[in-house]
Amino acid sequence: MEFIDYYKILEITKTASEADVKKAYRKLARKYHPDLNPNNKEAENKFKAINEANEVLSDSEKRKKYNKFGKDWKHADEFKNAQEQQSKRNTNQQQDYGAFTGDFSDFFESMYGNNSRNTGRQTKFRGQDVNAELHLNLRDVYISQQQTLTVNGKNIRLTFPAGIENGQVIKITGHGTAGANGGPKGDLFITFSISNDTQFKREGSNLYSSVVLDLYTALLGGEVLIDTFYGKVKLKVAPETQAGSKIKLKGKGFPVYKKENEFGDLYVTYQVKLPTALSVKEKELLAELQKIRNNENN
């Protein structure tokens, strides 16, 4: 098995931090993503290599094994178990595995390869898990939808439920790399990166927004047309509505993940905008109102 330098693939050094690995992966994954490089085999292969490198270097345990055992890092646990088993079978030989100075791959092969020939069996190894990042907009996850992803050169059509959160990870069983010696395939882990260019702030399944009222509507009451995530609705504004007051529109928020026809709430904060560029007549009327208010309070 040829050694693959995962650090070189992600264009980072061996001392790179977890944040450096994540940053490098995101940058390269966007650059070589199949959606941005259709029918480009070289970009497709590069994208696969980037995902494989990230799958190892973003996991502290896998990275530790890779740094120690190189191309044979996947077999580190089997190597340790084999040492113990072989030691028991060769107690008469007093073999000191801790002092072994040869190549790890050769030693692993000598142990497992010989054992395979003697027993007629080969050890099965599970395939690697694959990590992918899917970039969507908040409006994309308001309804359930289908997406076609390219994984290991194959197109996979998946349905994603509405209400997926930013940073949420889902597992697609059996869509990782193939196993060795008939072992099972690894799994595909998809991390969702959801941007929000709407006027709404999202917290779970609840949405938050603000509406500006003019002074007269806030004082006297009336109606105002507001935006919800799926359209406009008309609200009645109570007289003497204060700036900063909030109302809740039940069921007008975001879909609840994997709960069909269930929605969070929409919370609307009222802001009051004072009039500007007052006319002489308006100023006179406001001054008169001020006098009336002062007299009533005295």
Q: Can you give me a brief rundown of this structure?
A:
The chain is α+β, with helices and mostly antiparallel strands and 298 residues long. The protein has helices at residues 6-9, 18-32, 41-57, 60-69, 76-89, 104-119, 215-220, 280-297, and strands spanning 130-137, 145-151, 154-160, 169-172, 188-195, 201-203, 206-214, 222-228, 231-237, 246-249, 266-273.
Q: What strand line-up does the widest sheet have?
A: 6-7-11-10
Tell me the CATH superfamily of the largest domain. Answer: DnaJ domain
Judging from the principal axes of the Cα atoms, what is the shape?
elongated
Number of strands: 11
Question: What proportion strand?
Answer: 15-25%
Count of domain modules:
3
* CATH architecture identity of the largest domain: Orthogonal Bundle
Question: Structural class of the secondary elements?
Answer: alpha+beta
Kindly provide the radius of gyration, computed on alpha-carbon positions and rounded to a whole number of angstroms.
Answer: 31 Å
Overview of this structure, please?
With 298 residues, the chain is of the alpha+beta class. The chain has three domains: 114 residues, Helix Hairpins (Orthogonal Bundle), CATH 1.10.287.110; 66 residues, Sandwich (HSP40/DNAj peptide-binding domain), CATH 2.60.260; 97 residues, Urease metallochaperone UreE, N-terminal domain (HSP40/DNAj peptide-binding domain), CATH 2.60.260. The chain has eight helices and eleven strands. A four-stranded mixed β-sheet has the order 6-7-11-10. Strands 1-5-4 form a three-stranded mixed β-sheet. The longest helix has 18 residues. The protein is elongated.
